[in-house]
């Protein structure tokens, strides 16, 4: 059966692996989906493209591993003649992107494939991971994360709605930091020793020369006191804030009053 074949191949691959000498690895070229480790976990090879068959998990055994920003999944559309579902590479982000060539790309992975063949291809920002709404207690820290895809690299700013200043501004208990990668930027906003005046709506704004994108999250700060008495309230508010953050048009109809 296929299972026994895969087990045998896995054993054969392991037994064939020698001591890893990176200097002896072949040079990889033309990898439109980025690089992955080979079956011996030593050299790099081309990752599989979207729609190609793949090995589930972290081991490169038979079909190979998916490239960057992809997951190995069994989709209904990938059913074989005997009714089994063959795992295929699926892009983790299915948001469409507008390229500088006037084309609309189905997702991040399709854009990266096109950008490999056309190095001058750019894209306006897309929020890959929006900040999540939080509920916390006075004196604690709150941390928002915002992950952005764009090329050329986007400038990411944090703002609190109803205020004109870009955070952190001159407030010593608020800081912002980021870590760039190729095409991507992760930005954090940290609020230390938060008070109830920090409650509100925070917006992550990413922009480059092609346009901008933004996402919001709500922060609720409960008054200090017996933390255990706030557990049920916190759970309720967390659910409410998460639900509201998924539907931005509802924010104007929701208000939260914190009672001392």
From TrEMBL:
<dbReference type="GO" id="GO:0005615">
    <property type="term" value="C:extracellular space"/>
</dbReference>
<feature type="signal peptide">
    <location>
        <begin position="1"/>
        <end position="17"/>
    </location>
</feature>
<dbReference type="InterPro" id="IPR036179">
    <property type="entry name" value="Ig-like_dom_sf"/>
</dbReference>
<dbReference type="InterPro" id="IPR003599">
    <property type="entry name" value="Ig_sub"/>
</dbReference>
<dbReference type="GO" id="GO:0009966">
    <property type="term" value="P:regulation of signal transduction"/>
</dbReference>
<dbReference type="InterPro" id="IPR007110">
    <property type="entry name" value="Ig-like_dom"/>
</dbReference>
<dbReference type="InterPro" id="IPR009030">
    <property type="entry name" value="Growth_fac_rcpt_cys_sf"/>
</dbReference>
<keyword id="KW-1015">Disulfide bond</keyword>
<feature type="domain" description="Ig-like">
    <location>
        <begin position="125"/>
        <end position="220"/>
    </location>
</feature>
<protein>
    <recommendedName>
        <fullName>Kazal-type serine peptidase inhibitor domain 3</fullName>
    </recommendedName>
</protein>
<keyword id="KW-0964">Secreted</keyword>
<dbReference type="InterPro" id="IPR003598">
    <property type="entry name" value="Ig_sub2"/>
</dbReference>
<dbReference type="InterPro" id="IPR002350">
    <property type="entry name" value="Kazal_dom"/>
</dbReference>
<dbReference type="InterPro" id="IPR013783">
    <property type="entry name" value="Ig-like_fold"/>
</dbReference>
<dbReference type="InterPro" id="IPR000867">
    <property type="entry name" value="IGFBP-like"/>
</dbReference>
<dbReference type="GO" id="GO:0005520">
    <property type="term" value="F:insulin-like growth factor binding"/>
</dbReference>
<dbReference type="InterPro" id="IPR013098">
    <property type="entry name" value="Ig_I-set"/>
</dbReference>
<dbReference type="Pfam" id="PF07648">
    <property type="entry name" value="Kazal_2"/>
</dbReference>
<keyword id="KW-0393">Immunoglobulin domain</keyword>
<dbReference type="InterPro" id="IPR011390">
    <property type="entry name" value="IGFBP_rP_mac25"/>
</dbReference>
<dbReference type="GO" id="GO:0001558">
    <property type="term" value="P:regulation of cell growth"/>
</dbReference>
<keyword id="KW-0732">Signal</keyword>
<feature type="domain" description="IGFBP N-terminal">
    <location>
        <begin position="13"/>
        <end position="92"/>
    </location>
</feature>
<dbReference type="Pfam" id="PF07679">
    <property type="entry name" value="I-set"/>
</dbReference>
């Amino acid at each position: 059966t296929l299972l026994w074949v895969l087990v045998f191949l896995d054993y054969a691959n392991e037994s064939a692996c020698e001591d890893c000498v990176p200097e002896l690895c072949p040079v990889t070229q033309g990898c439109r989906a980025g690089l992955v480790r080979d079956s011996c976990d030593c050299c790099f090879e081309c990752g599989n493209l979207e729609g190609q068959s793949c090995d589930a998990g972290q081991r490169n055994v038979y079909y190979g591993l998916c490239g960057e920003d992809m997951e190995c999944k069994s989709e209904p559309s990938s059913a074989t003649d005997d009714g089994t579902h063959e795992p295929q590479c699926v892009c983790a982000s299915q948001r469409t992107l507008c390229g500088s060539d006037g084309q609309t790309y189905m997702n991040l992975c399709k854009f990266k494939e096109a950008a490999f063949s056309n190095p001058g291809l750019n894209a306006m920002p897309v929020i890959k991971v929006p900040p999540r709404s939080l509920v916390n207690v006075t004196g604690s820290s709150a941390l928002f994360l915002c992950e952005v895809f764009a090329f050329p690299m986007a400038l990411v700013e944090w703002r609190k709605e109803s205020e004109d200043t870009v955070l952190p501004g001159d407030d010593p208990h608020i800081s912002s930091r980021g870590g760039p990668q190729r095409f991507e930027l992760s930005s954090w906003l940290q609020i230390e020793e938060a008070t109830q005046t920090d409650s509100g709506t925070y917006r992550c704004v990413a922009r480059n020369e092609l346009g901008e994108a933004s996402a919001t999250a709500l922060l609720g700060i409960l008054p200090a006191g017996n933390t255990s008495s706030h557990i049920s309230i916190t759970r309720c508010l967390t659910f409410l804030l998460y639900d509201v953050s998924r539907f931005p048009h509802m924010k104007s109809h929701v208000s939260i009053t914190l009672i001392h």
